[in-house]
Specification:
The chain has 371 residues and is α+β, with helices and mostly antiparallel strands. It contains eleven helices and ten strands. The strands form two sheets. Strands 1, 2, 4, 5 and 8 form a five-stranded antiparallel β-sheet that branches. Strands 3-10-9-6-7 form a five-stranded mixed β-sheet, with no helix packed on it. The longest helix is centred in the N-terminal third of the chain and has 49 residues. The chain is elongated and about 110 Å long.
Length: 371
């Protein structure tokens, strides 16, 4: 038995997914982020070619439906001119009906070989069974032909009814544009919230301080940033798929039409993820040994320097206080401890701790009072 083309595509995609999965497991180091990316790649290779084929097939059928009423009206005009059905179809085969041309040419060839009109219509209905408009129109046309008489008025009536139904569908799709736009807004608001969670709230959880988190402070127990990257990546993928499919159903009433929305949402979301979440982050915390000091008193500033989950060892750290700059280095745990001197004037002060690594800069602020 001959395997349908779409199932052959699915089989090839499944084999390719298995090979990529096995190769990745053998060659790559498995981290949370790697596993998340690998899962998306494997699933995409498995389903995307099949889904794309189905979507393109649906799009082709839709384009054929748009030309179908014109074809019927041209046939009706030819029949009213007194030609036979075979000659009318032969004449129509010389016109341009875009995606419908191969089917009309096939009908013309079959009838020129002596195949009956009834057989030709039945075979075309079987080939185009995915199109409700064409199948229904051909069924009505076939019954009219069997009943005998002039079928040109029936062809014209079927063409007009098809145009009317297509216009109703287009109006419905247009009215759903606003709802589709809302779904896109929901998607990208979700992605922005994900970025805020990763860049602001997770550091707050790790440090317990809002100011330090905004400035890159990380301290205390270290969170597994790779875990959160993988987690947020998976949630973005799931959200893109679900919102894209819902957008397709909302706008066109078909899950397959949601493929283009899934591709667009995921592509933009992936760009945002790659820019704001995927890169490693240089962070530093700063804690003052004392909050209340006297003029000229020595005290210490300490904290930790991280590059995501990695501690930076022997990294230069600068403390800027008024016009003075104090320098220290991190130890094997990424911690630094720098002695500084309070200003000679009373008041509230903010000091700045700064670290540079590769092309990144991280800063944190500490505060104290001089009595």
């Amino acid at each position: 038995m001959k395997l349908e083309k779409k199932y052959l595509i699915l089989l090839i995609s499944a084999l390719a997914s298995v090979l990529i999965l096995i190769g990745s497991l053998l060659l790559l180091e498995m981290t949370i982020v790697t596993i998340a990316y690998l899962a998306v790649i494997v699933i995409s290779i498995l389903l995307f070619p099949f889904t794309l084929y189905e979507y393109v097939s649906k799009l082709r059928v839709k384009m054929m439906e748009e030309q179908f009423p014109t074809f019927l009206k041209d046939l009706a005009d030819s029949l009213r001119a007194g030609v036979t059905v075979a000659d009318a179809i032969k004449t129509a085969s010389k016109s341009d009906y875009r995606e419908l041309n191969p089917e009309i040419q096939r009908m013309s060839n079959q009838m020129s070989w002596g195949v009956s009109f009834e057989t030709v219509i039945n075979e075309q209905m079987e080939r185009l069974k995915e199109s409700v408009y064409i199948s229904r129109g051909l069924a009505i046309l076939l019954q009219s032909f069997k009943s005998g008489g002039d079928i040109s008025p029936i062809m014209t009536s079927v063409a007009d009814s098809t145009i009317l139904l297509q216009n109703v569908q287009k109006d419905q799709e247009s009215s759903m544009t606003e709802q589709t736009s809302i779904i896109y807004v929901i998607q990208f608001v979700f992605v922005i919230i994900t970025v805020v969670l990763f860049r602001v709230l997770i550091p707050i959880t790790n440090t317990g301080g809002f100011g330090e988190a905004l400035l890159g402070g990380v301290g205390g127990g270290q969170l597994d940033m790779d875990y959160y990257k993988g987690f947020f990546f998976v949630t973005i993928v799931i959200q893109s798929i679900c919102n894209g499919l819902v957008a397709g159903v909302t706008q066109s009433g078909s899950l397959l039409s949601g493929v283009k929305h899934v591709a667009l949402m995921f592509s933009v979301s992936l760009i945002i993820f790659t820019i704001f979440i995927l890169p490693k982050t240089l962070t530093i915390s700063a804690v003052s040994e004392r909050y209340a000091l006297v003029k000229g008193q020595d005290f210490r500033i300490f904290g930790t320097v991280n590059y995501d989950d990695d501690f930076l060892i022997n990294q230069r750290v600068e403390v800027v206080l008024e016009n003075e700059t104090y320098v220290g280095f991190t130890d094997e745990s990424g911690d630094y401890d720098i002695a500084v001197t309070a200003p000679d004037d009373r008041g509230s002060y903010d000091g700045l701790v700064r670290v540079e690594y590769e092309d990144k800069v991280a800063e944190a602020v500490f505060s104290f009072n001089v009595r």
